[in-house]
Amino acid sequence: MFLLGHSCWSYLFSKATGRKLNVNLPAYLALLSGILPDFDIYFQPYLVHHTYTHSLIVIIPIVLVLTYFFGRLGFAFSIGILLHLLGDYSTPSTPTRMSD
Fold it and tell me: Within a domain: residue 97?
């Protein structure tokens, strides 16, 4: 999935989760949450895209820490991060480089 798709889905679901939890998640955070796992492209060759930042072993502790420190706001933000993984796993091909 491309960055625009990640941003749109994360915005919709993070904002909806925020509404259900009675917390106002700012739009920029809802959009950012969906593309956060793709920031590994800026750290190549140190991090390979679609490895650590797209792993539940890394994402689940991040979700737990965000929820612990920021409560409902952190949980709503985390929904967008988790949707990024779901979006990547549900599409047949995922770009691995900025030029794709």
Answer: no
What's the residue count for the chain? Answer: 100
pLDDT tens for each residue of the chain, 100 residues long: 677 878 888 899 999 999 999 999 999 999 899 888 888 887 778 777 777 788 888 889 999 999 999 999 999 999 999 988 888 777 766 555 444 4
- What is the chain's alpha carbon radius of gyration, rounded to the nearest angstrom? 13
Separation of alpha carbons 28 and 47, rounded Å: 25
Tally of structural domains, the chain: 1
Q: Is residue 83 part of a domain?
A: yes
| C-alpha pair distances (Å), 53 with each of 14, 23, 37, 83, 100 | 19, 26, 5, 13, 19
Q: Which residues have CB under 8 Å from 66's CB, separation 6+?
A: 74, 75, 77, 78
Tell me if 98 is assigned to some domain. Answer: no
**Which residue range(s) make up the domain with 64?**
3-90
pTM above 0.90, yes or no: no
